[in-house]
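Step 1: inspect the first sequence and its tokens.
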Amino acid sequence: MSTTMTTTSPSETHSTNDPRFDSGTQKPMSPTFQPRFDIWEGDDEWILYGDLPGVVCDDLVVTFENRQLSVHGKVGRCFDGENALCSEYRVGDFQRSFTVGEAINSEAISAELRDGVLTLHLPKSDRAKPRRIEVSAT
């Protein structure tokens, strides 16, 4: 049973039919960035916190397929860029993928977006949860 989680870059996760990538070169059609995530592990679940300032739910897609958890979306500039003195927020398309071990209850994965932070809850399956082993005296 695996409880591992790994991340992959967008270029490692797209299919050859993905319209966001050039079919000849397999490179992104437009710049894609990877948002930052923190990963926390508890006894009952893993929680991923993604830094997504300016993203709205309608521009966010979270999928889970074949142990691959993927977050896709886009974020636009929140002001007219012509008069900007400084612009450090990333804008455009973003993608982040995680390969999740088999010890996750995929039916119970949930997500919420609040104040620019995406929180993904990945509950552990019962067989992956820690348990105390009773010791008997002989």
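Step 2: inspect the second sequence and its tokens, then contrast the two.
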Amino acid sequence: MRLKVIIGSILIIGFIIFGAYSFIESNVKYATIEEAKKTTKKVQIVGEWVRDRESYYDTRRHQFIFYLKDDNGDIVKVVHQGAKPNNFEIASHVVVKGRYVNGIFESQEILTKCPSKYQSADALKQYQN
């Protein structure tokens, strides 16, 4: 009987720790590029893909590399660990989650805002042209 209580208590404590860790990891603050440079914490940056700068997928390292410009006009090189999202080219805005390290924003997650879901048909035609 006492062994069951101990095992049950350990499982409950384990679930509480896992839940707290998951909550802290998912609670990521929005920041500008300038703010991301000043912190070592994980942040998320909203911006636009800089299309006139290089962007490519490194197949050896499985990294997608591109440049992002935030609303203040600051530009940062983003190295994403993973593949390029399918709708990346048509996205009106991009959100990257990660950390700024040694002049590069190391992204673990990319979210794209698809213009077709949030804009009128006329605005969508402008993106397609």
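Step 3: confirm your contrast with the notes below.
The longest helix spans residues 2-26. The radius of gyration is 20 Å.
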